[in-house]
Amino acid sequence: MVIDVHGHLTAPDSLYVYKANILSHRGSHGRGKVEISDDEMIAFLNEPTFNTGKSHLELLKEVGTDVQLLSPRPYQMMHAEKPAKVSQWFIEECNNLVAQQCRLFPNVFKGICGLPQSPDASPKNCIPELERCVKGFGFVGCLLNPDPSEATNYDVPGLGDEYWYPLYEKLVELDVPGYIHGAGCRSIRHSYSTHFINEETIAVVALASSRVFKDFPKLKIVCSHGGGAVPYHAGRFQAPSLRR
Amino acid sequence: MVIDVHGHLTAPDSLYVYKANILSHRGSHGRGKVEISDDEMIAFLNEPTFNTGKSHLELLKEVGTDVQLLSPRPYQMMHAEKPAKVSQWFIEECNNLVAQQCRLFPNVFKGICGLPQSPDASPKNCIPELERCVKGFGFVGCLLNPDPSEATNYDVPGLGDEYWYPLYEKLVELDVPGYIHGAGCRSIRHSYSTHFINEETIAVVALASSRVFKDFPKLKIVCSHGGGAVPYHAGRFQAPSLRR
Amino acid sequence: MVIDVHGHLTAPDSLYVYKANILSHRGSHGRGKVEISDDEMIAFLNEPTFNTGKSHLELLKEVGTDVQLLSPRPYQMMHAEKPAKVSQWFIEECNNLVAQQCRLFPNVFKGICGLPQSPDASPKNCIPELERCVKGFGFVGCLLNPDPSEATNYDVPGLGDEYWYPLYEKLVELDVPGYIHGAGCRSIRHSYSTHFINEETIAVVALASSRVFKDFPKLKIVCSHGGGAVPYHAGRFQAPSLRR
Amino acid sequence: MVIDVHGHLTAPDSLYVYKANILSHRGSHGRGKVEISDDEMIAFLNEPTFNTGKSHLELLKEVGTDVQLLSPRPYQMMHAEKPAKVSQWFIEECNNLVAQQCRLFPNVFKGICGLPQSPDASPKNCIPELERCVKGFGFVGCLLNPDPSEATNYDVPGLGDEYWYPLYEKLVELDVPGYIHGAGCRSIRHSYSTHFINEETIAVVALASSRVFKDFPKLKIVCSHGGGAVPYHAGRFQAPSLRR
Amino acid sequence: MVIDVHGHLTAPDSLYVYKANILSHRGSHGRGKVEISDDEMIAFLNEPTFNTGKSHLELLKEVGTDVQLLSPRPYQMMHAEKPAKVSQWFIEECNNLVAQQCRLFPNVFKGICGLPQSPDASPKNCIPELERCVKGFGFVGCLLNPDPSEATNYDVPGLGDEYWYPLYEKLVELDVPGYIHGAGCRSIRHSYSTHFINEETIAVVALASSRVFKDFPKLKIVCSHGGGAVPYHAGRFQAPSLRR
Amino acid sequence: MVIDVHGHLTAPDSLYVYKANILSHRGSHGRGKVEISDDEMIAFLNEPTFNTGKSHLELLKEVGTDVQLLSPRPYQMMHAEKPAKVSQWFIEECNNLVAQQCRLFPNVFKGICGLPQSPDASPKNCIPELERCVKGFGFVGCLLNPDPSEATNYDVPGLGDEYWYPLYEKLVELDVPGYIHGAGCRSIRHSYSTHFINEETIAVVALASSRVFKDFPKLKIVCSHGGGAVPYHAGRFQAPSLRR
To answer: What is the ipTM of this complex?
Structure first.
């Protein structure tokens, strides 16, 4: 069985209209909601998408994927947006749509949730949404963005830091993996695409040189994009001159 | 003839999908473009909108409007977004859609353009877009947002300041009015809705206590929302104790 | 009986000499004190004031005021000054002079105290001065400045926020109203005079869209300057499109 | 003949009422003016002052001073206040009063002006006021505050830096000395009184280790408060280990 | 017996190589250690030093010093460096070398430790190192730097503030004095050399005008460099006009 | 012939003592100088180094290197240090030692200079040092650090930006390559070692998606560490979805 662990949500336009709206009124029109009927969603997943001439479901079949783990599109999550509730609402809506697609196609999709991370809040604030998705929807993991600041500063502690322990503890308790995946990038120097790779490099090195897996022997972590640059530079990171 | 000077663009979803995308990739996928065929646009303007059960064109008829001046939706313009090009691209696309609607319904709509204002740039940078819209599309004025910082600081000079003179000069040269209208608000204390009123109050008092109309006797300025709080407090602002 | 709820302290020069001094030594000469004998104060209130050719007491008679609620001059309170004790000392002295005038003319004046608000401190820190004035001097209310930052930032929570609850609780306990009145303005864009109006607009909307009066059904709030822009724009704020 | 080079202005209350007012309205009531008639000023200088039981003129006689150089009170100058015009207006008014006292008592007083220094402006901006006082009033020097930031940062270049050259050039041209004297202090760590000494220490060391007197061989500099700590620590500053 | 209370560590090059290294890798190579054998250290202290042609021990003899209190070189301590552990490690190494020299020459040297002060941490964080040195090595006091910010801001509370009480309490408990000595200076306006004097002036005035010796009657404080400017300006600081 | 293009300076302790000193006095003891006689330097290069038991020259032989390009150790360069002259002096001394080793072993070493880059200065300020090394010493290239901020912000423009053009122009004129190599890292999230890789990834992508090689067809750029992550992720960066 072929399982694609790295699939992202393909969503109807109304998700992005919702996003544009909450970014404009910044909460003053209230939280709102994205509503797509099951019929609309089924139709949507069978329509051509992303200028490929094929639908999401057809593309899966074409490449031989049996099951796809589906998560919100990371570069859309805007973890550094203020007020944080704007980002949180959007991520919740993304997770709702992932849940809807999983419910409609239970043999094809399994959910991975986005978390309402924020550079100004402890990862503790992500636990309610994580529980809602795993316990409520049956999701099988969550995205873990090592840099919720979206490249606006260098101050968020690395993944080896105790800052992240409340989240690790909950992942162990729920017995689901954290899926490391960079997200938005607001730097003028690069784009989300290189930021993904760089953050995943930092994340793997930070974990590998930390006590995290000693402190949480049952923690499961998966890293996207081939572990950033780490496998390519493995020799370098193992050189004695860099060992502490 | 009834002319509504204060109409905003009703746009298909693809404008907002475009906005959500450029805010996510922040320019790294390139500028892109919103494309709506004339047929789609004509159909769209005849479909029910904003949960009213009626189309934009029907609503105009119902209230007896003959001609409507159409401008981008101010609270969507995101003048304080960084990089500034993201806001600029979006505003250009809004102006393009306004131009398309004006071209399709020349007896109904006249265009008022949004400007790519930014708290970090002189209003001089708005002149190319202003000229593109007035000379190229036949627009009859532009929006003037007194606070492009979107309530993130108190440092943008008031409309009475020479900071704004390059724009005033161009408005006089093109012989079109500037239409004062507040825009986005990122403060936690209030919403764009009160920010509109407050900024318009500041704007009118700033202009009235300045040399602007002495220096530009042919400048035409229109203020939305009844001049903010000024007419209601006219006596206060005329009291001797407040005169310099 | 005509009661003027919006009177401010007319004070002898020595109050302002005191203010200029503490602003210069910033506390290093100690707190000091403004001392005006009762005879001096009575004489002062009967001397012409503010270039009107008439005394404060004569002006009251002339316009038919029977009782005047007397508070510190808001634009003098300097809530954003640092160190905060400089502002606190000045406000205490203002309250002392208000108390002295109330004691000397008990049928004419009732006291409204200023509070040592600060953008860096919880409103909790105002409770001792509020109690000193209400319990000690018999004052009948306090000024409530919605923006102690004096327009230096947009971060102070709106009056609908729980940030203000300790003060509301004490107002209910003491059974005196809070009197909303803007204060100093350090923005380059406008002056205290428009800032008053704008802040009062924000304050009324913030309270009206909050749970404050549900949580404190006995809280009494009065707003100066006709409620900012709110009555003039009442229709706007009641429009369905702005309702949450 | 005994000349006291270090006298500061003793001024009537109205100067400080003026200061308190412009600090409160921050310019929005206009510049205003302190007006004291010659008769009032003569009377004032003959009245007891500063709780000494003696007048300014009597105190001069008592200690045997024949001529006193009179300058604004440094700790009142508020060079770091914003907007800078508030500080500038106050200093101009101080200089006007110094000029009035010099005109009324030409054998007793000679003027030393304060300058509208600002941490955000080049010392160049002080030249018009310096010329007004020296050419217009016959003043014989100016105060030189080495730290116009009033201890809010450590960024103003030392007196040995070319930053100060426009002012030195003008002092040479007008052939009047600069009188080094610290001014206001907004630090929480100390008061203007120790700040004076510390800044004068920095100033003397900065000048002594610079090219200033090579570049301006005719520049005259006087330092108040015995040169800060320099004479006491002269040996230290001459030690080879500290020489470059 | 002549006791020099103000001696600083003369150390072999490897201390500074260590410092340059931890400043470059900023902790990523681990803490490391400076290792100098007793034989090397004895040889080093008998070699000519500081371009004097004489050794540290010879210089002591030459000037007639019997016992020298030895502390880390203050201007090397880099209290404001980030991450703070870099400064802490270096100071611990300095203290170790002081301890080694005291152990090797117990009749000549007594130790005074540097403390891992930081502008971002309470002085509480210095207690473990103070105890390690006094209890473990028999040191007889510690350096006290009044400005761990190294002249990068004016926000560290003065020595009269309760901020310092945890340290004072421990000094009393251990019955050793605190030795006031300025340290590094990152201002562009002056150098560590004037900063020493200025900070010591601030420190003495702050203590003298505080409750510290009332609250800690057994606290022993020694001040280097002749008390900054205080003895020279003693009259000034005792003048009634400066008394609170 | 085997040429190692990526060798860094092995230097005697006195270079690091020099570095520790200028970081401590921050320029107030003057610039100073590292002086190592030719005999000392020859001896040093033949002594065991870096705990390998072998000398720099022996190590070259052992691995079969004929010629080594020698540059300053990048993680020591401290481009973000303030004042910038401290970093500049150190880099000049490093370049001097590289020049000395090249002069002493002309068949073995060729020089690559470090540049006095700074996050607060245009790369233009590096031209004099580049010319001194290439024209004066015969160096064959220079290090190019894409992030002189040392991971303290994300604001330095990427290598594709015109910000770098003055340097590119000079490299073309002198006909020497720029050697991309990350340098110091002050972030708490990672170390210089991952920062190297990440910055090189950003640099290669920035150049590849820019007009630099169109505008400077003769510019030669070499990238260290295998091009960061780029070769490993080449497919990703060539994917259509990422093309503009």
So the answer is: 0.94
